[in-house]
Amino acid sequence: MKKLLAILALSAAALGIGDLAWAQDAASAPAATAITEAAPAAAAAATDAAAPVEGAAAAASPAPTVDKGDVAWMLTSTLLVILMTIPGLALFYGGLVRAKNMLSVLMQVFVVFALIVVLWAVYGYTLAFGGGGSFIGTFDKLFLAGITKDSLADTFTAGVKIPEYVFVAFQSTFAAITCGLIVGAFAERVRFSAVLLFSVLWFTFSYLPIAHMVWFAEGLLFKDGAIDFAGGTVVHINAGVAGLVGAYLVGKRIGYGKEAMPPHSLTLTMVGASLLWVGWFGFNAGSNLEANAGAALALINTLLATAAATLSWIGGESLSKGKASMLGAASGAVAGLVAITPACGTVGPMGAIVIGLVAGIVCLWGVNGLKRMLGADDALDVFGVHGLGGILGALLTGVFTAPGLGGTGAAEFSIAHQLFVQAKGVLITIVWSAVVSLVAYKVVDLLVGLRVPEEAEREGLDITSHGETAYHN
């Protein structure tokens, strides 16, 4: 009981901001290996390009081990992240908009996913994980140059590898869903061409540098010791800030604040939220890169935090509005998923429950009180859930990673120091994403225009942008 009280007290005191990158240095590769260090959510990925080695050095270097179970788990995790994006995120967002804009949201998420996956293979992977210094990678692996079916990537365990193609594919889904998340902020009034052009610019100049800084061994935030196991900073804060900037620059929907704009299908939103929850196990537990106890820890933390956030959100709704809603339950689940993402591999199960409970209440305030204070029409609450939830989760990662609170931190782990490191990383991410987003939106507005004409918005983007409708009477 004392331990639980201590956890609750510390979590309450820690409410603020902070998230970042946790990554372990992968063991040095043998002298016969050309290494490119990287990390998906803490791990360092390396490419084995077999080079000739002479004499005793070759004999002394242990052969790398590729476990079929690890490979199978990473293939499955990659598929799970695709599931959480299409159809998960697409249906979650689609159900929240009005019926006349349903297909436009599905189309935006679907095509953005496809676009970013291709760009990842062309130049994204090399700039994020293909060498480099503190801020960005190199072009050494442009068009996946030098990567073959025999190339290997490191895991958390020395000498244990996975095929690099698996790592490339897994990381491509992270980049794609991050860009897809932003769509919700300016839904129902943005040009389709603007969404695609913005996604290219923002992916190139915001996602890739932040991913490199947080997850690459030589990255600025990685070297600081920031903890971000599965993307709280790289994915959620990054996307949340971009969404908020977009909501301001695209402008409010016609009739916003004057007429009701209820979700057209909470049934589909619930289906989407459920797919997100299922797929998130690949997102979080897959970031462990191995099918072992580390993946099990990330999985149970993801399960518990999400359940706790669902309960706290609807509990807060009941107290403030008198009723618990299906929309609240779905939103609470997503808030818990977001908040636990940076912490899932380093905190204990009781810490995960506390993070979830706090996230549900804080994000409930984020989509109500904070949203009114900001005055932006963030249509599907990208910042209120992903931005704010990511910030909260990042900071609490610095608290509950402490071994005294059930975390996996070293004996000398300092909460105060880690909180400082986490907060520094959060602030860098916020500023970087905000500046890149502002410039990108302005460029897009000049080239193709951000917003559809008023008549098109009133009629609905399904017909005016895509020439089809989601439903027929």
From TrEMBL:
Tell me the protein's name. Ammonium transporter
- Report whether Transmembrane shows up as a keyword of the record: yes
The entry sums up its family as follows: Belongs to the ammonia transporter channel (TC 1.A.11.2) family.
What topology does the record note for this protein and the membrane?
Answer: Multi-pass membrane protein
Q: PANTHER family, per this entry?
A: AMMONIUM TRANSPORTER MEP2 (PTHR43029:SF10)
SUPFAM superfamilies assigned to the protein according to its UniProt record, in alphabetical order = Ammonium transporter (SSF111352)
Q: Which residues form the signal peptide?
A: 1-23
Parts of the chain that traverse the membrane: 71-93, 105-125, 165-187, 194-217, 229-251, 263-283, 295-314, 326-343, 349-367, 379-400, 420-441
Q: List the Gene3D superfamilies.
A: Ammonium transporter AmtB like domains
Provide one Gene Ontology cellular component.
Answer: plasma membrane
Where in this chain does the record put each Ammonium transporter AmtB-like domain? 72-471
Assigned keywords, A-Z = Ammonia transport, Cell membrane, Membrane, Signal, Transmembrane, Transmembrane helix, Transport
- GO molecular function terms noted in the UniProt entry: ammonium channel activity
Q: What is the lineage of its organism?
A: Bacteria, Pseudomonadati, Pseudomonadota, Betaproteobacteria, Burkholderiales
Tell where it localizes. Answer: Cell membrane
